[in-house]
Amino acid sequence: CFIGPMRVALVVTAILLLLIVPESSGLSSLKVSQSATTSNNAGGGGGLPLASISTKQPAAIDGAEWASLAPFCGDDGENRGFVGDVGRMTILCGTLLDTDERVVGIQKEDRPETDSGLSSLSIYPESMARIPPNVKDDIAISTLVASLSGIYTCSDQDRVVVVGGGDFACFCARGLAVASSSSTKKNKKVWLVCQDGKPAQRLPPSVEVLSPSMSGDLLEQGFCDYLGSFDALVDTLSDEGRRAENALEYMDEDDLIARGGSGVVPLLEARHGCKRYISTLTASQRIVRDNGLLFGPKQAEEFFVNSFKQAGRRQRSGNAFRAPKGMGKVLEELLEAGVTYDLRGQSPRNAPAIYRGWNLKKFWELATWPRDAAGGANVRFGLPVLDDLNVLEREASSTGRLMEEEDEEEEGGAKPQVNPFVKEIVGVRGLQKDVIDAGEDCVLFLSAKFCRTCKVMNPAYTRMARISTEAANSSKRINEKLVYAKTEASGRLGKELGKALDVDSVPTFVMFRKGKVYGSPLSITKLPSKKLDLAIQYLMEGREWDINAFRENDDENGKKQPRRSKIF
């Protein structure tokens, strides 16, 4: 007769123990509670029940980081996890009911209509990751929070660029190198871009480190132009898409591209095929950046506390955080590979949850990053920039043409050949592939569609190329054959090439010996030209460049020259 009351007492005791599992705002003070046993139907509603809980920790993601992650959350698009400007969650560490394995995951929140008055003791199945024996609860929780935006969102992409050189950026790069879907494992490529190419941590060989400015064989290039094409960019320093400004409304990726802030986001897609821009900038980092080190930190702390409370009210009304699909698999890969992150000390001790706060090193890295002077916007060097205020409109109306032009440049650097004697060169990459890498002896004619003088010279240049080619073929001196090439110096690709060769007007000729620039650009406005003929003779005979000799043979000395056209 006493068995029934004893069972009731045991169940009540178990429930009380579960309710007093400690909640800590700082990971440094996390404590492991005594295991508390739950019943087999704990959680319910699709949750994964836990047999015991060792740590329970509130956490939050905000700012552009949350705006980047939110579209990945939710069940089949339902609510998409978008519940305001803070993603609020509770993370549990414990053991599984059936296997007694040690796991970490996001607590499944009960809906109001099914809430029994007690917190659910289950986690979202999609968020579950097994914890290796050598990883502590607080590190597993930190890694879960830190990996959501910077790693999970791009784990399915083949070619990913991470911008930033701090500890968090290094964590993202290392994580992206090991966490991938089955379709990306073989082709995975990760680059980390930081100032001076010196990241805060030593990175594995699978991560290539770049600087904002990369030295090619021809010129200094921004890292985006140096890489050419990539699938995704994780920005740990700033928010070029201004995602956080729109955090109270749901926008899909097309909306975010259309409202691309500085113009960098749509240019990344148009010029480099980058269809996924992820910003990990938190609200605290943005506030400190905008308000300075004196007033920013206090304002950031107050903003987080207020936003977290508002998110809690929305959560109780049914707008609970939805775990992103497949995040547990990615997290488990990180933990098994030893790629972890420690959030301790990054949020105030009295904060209601752990979160990534502002960081002084990151603040200075963004402030000291070199800026691009090519356009009117204040854009970090290496990212694509608008040449003028009308460029974006023109590119938006002709995205197909631009992508076709980029495809031509990627595939071979040349337009379809219509002149059998003069090779067409498209942009810096075309010159790199067809002349520099090929080690050619070459005469390059830089012209422009709007240049009348260039149009007059075109037939004479083709005649020069034909005579030279036929002479080389008839004498069987193929190894001494000179390549006659021509490039369009107008437009974005042409201007980039002009800058690389230090040419600001056309018509101009540039010589190459075995793929290297030979001498200096020659301004010639009439063909045939004694100056050009002598320069070609010096080139083919292997003689040193002699600018004085070329000046003495200048056909245009003392004569009125045809008009030249500026390309800048």
UniProtKB/TrEMBL annotation:
Keywords of this entry: Signal
Annotated signal sequence range: 1-26
Annotated region described as Disordered, given as residue ranges: 397-416
Protein name (Swiss-Prot/TrEMBL): Thioredoxin domain-containing protein
Keyword Cytoplasm set for record: no
Domain of life: Eukaryota
Organism: Grammatophora oceanica
Domain Thioredoxin: 432-517
Pfam families, sorted: Thioredoxin
Keyword Cell membrane: no
